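ARCHIVE CARD
Drawer: 12
Card no.: 0347
Subject: one protein chain, sequence and derived structure
Cross-reference: see card 0346
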Amino acid sequence: MLQAIRERVTGVVAIFILGLLAIPFLFFGVESYIGGGVPQDAVATVGDDEISTSEFQTSFARFRAELRQEQGDAYDEIATNQPVVRRQHLEEMIDERLLRQHAESMGLSISATMLRDIIAQIPAFQIDGRFDPELYRQALRGSGRTPRGFERELREDLMVRMLPTSVSFSTIVTEAEIDRMLSLENETRQLDLIEIPVALFLDQVEVDDEAIAEFYEANQDDFLTTEQVSIRYVELDTVAMTRDLELSEEELRQRYQAASQRYLTPESRQASHILIETGPERNEDQARALAQQVYEQALAGEPFADLAREFSDDPGSADAGGELGWIEPGDMVDEFENALYDLTFAGELSEPVRSPFGWHVIRLEEIREPEGMSFEEARPEIIAEFREREAETLYIELSDRLVDLVFADDSSLDPLAAELGLDIRQAEPFSRGGGEGVAASQRVVQAAFSDLVLLDGSISDPIELDRNQLVVIQLEEHFPATPRPLDEVADDIRQRLIDSRARELARQQAQELKDQAAESSLAELAEADEVLVFSEYEAMGRFDFQHGPELLAEVFRLPVPDGEPGLHVLPHRGGYALVRLHAVRAGNPALASEQERNLMRQQIRFLQANEEVGGLLAYLRENTRIRVVEDRL
């Protein structure tokens, strides 16, 4: 067959066919045929950089954990895990990647000294205000990080933050700009006002049953019940199915012997060091020479702790005689760690070794050999691993069978449950906001209200809830949104009508007073009515909130009076206010203190820097190829 094709596709015909095939490759590239050029494990690419799926999931999980801690009981798990939130978080990661790439292209970098100083200033790593290396390692270990990984993340984060900071310091704020902003911020308005509260008119409003019924008929969409569904479901949870599995004593011991190396803790070493930095006051050769001198003094018998207090540039350990505490593999940079683990006995000194932080003289204090877990200590872990593997194997087997059954018959859960020996359960009715149990999963909610389940009556595709856990659902009953009975909402309607009509009466009185104010002052009008409250302000500022933010915002939107004072009816705390605006006076920049001017300068610089960074990001996005795989979010 291939030979026949080869014989016929020659000459002009072959050139024509190959030309047609070349066109899509010319315009779209080979990557267009293999997933748009986005690597299989990437959720997005930013230029030549990838944002892997695991990187995105880790970052998004950390974001949600921080949000949960900040919001407490107000945290909404479902709302926070919506696709729009996940996409927004990805866009922020893309912006950070763009800024980091731009910073690197500009030659910006974070020195080892700067990084060390910043870490030393983090309160979580301090005891009594001083950096503690052991606490630093323990804190990172507790969060599942290594010092090397944390320092890499911190360096990248600082790179992203450095660029906006550099932009803000490069912006120029003129004194004229500061004067103009101070004039606006310190502007005051001279005015009189009469309050016409809605409470004065509540007793004057009567609402009969006919008015309530008319409002109900015209606005039934305001009084609908919440649409709900109830579902039947089959849950495949192999973790629960294997929870009671046990191993014989002989099998447990065989597994322990086969994996004995896994139950050893790593060798750790207690060490002290003296750090000699390079910098403006000491070049590389001088630092190396000083480190060699200190090393020779320590060899000669001078107390290492005294030498550390005198010479070490490490603020976290110098005062403690250079003590670093216990160190495990992966805790320190490679150069330091290799030198430490080359030492063989307590008290031995390393020759000066260079790391990104400077020159180190290291003293080994003590070696803690690897410690193995006893059989009894390892027993729970062996059983847990056995059950996990069994759950995984069973899940693969049963989930494959379940998928086949769903595609064979999607009209009922009964044959599926009978075939796999699973129970059919029922969930309490829930809305699109979710419910309890399996309905707490937004994936289940989305499936329950999908056309497939809600309209077609079919069972859903398998929905993965967690590792080794999935459900298949079917609609039990649909409770569409319907108007609530009139007698159930009558009181609510009555209060709405009373409030609305009372507010209208307040507005009418405010308008009548405005007409009368053409011949009288507001003080005279308030005195004549007795129940109205009159207030006079020689200089109301932008931060005078005694009448609430709504009225204050409206007052500062009023136009400057043109000759005669202006009369205005403005909303005020549910009612209205009649305001006579006499004058608008700009703030005097000359009265501002130097501290106020500096604060305003910083505010203007911050606004300008935000605009500059926004413009930079827009430029970088326009000139960088960014590809996102929505299905992997």
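Annotation on reverse: The longest helix spans residues 375-408. The chain has five domains: 2-33, 42-171+624-632, 187-221+487-585, 228-246+378-479, 265-368.
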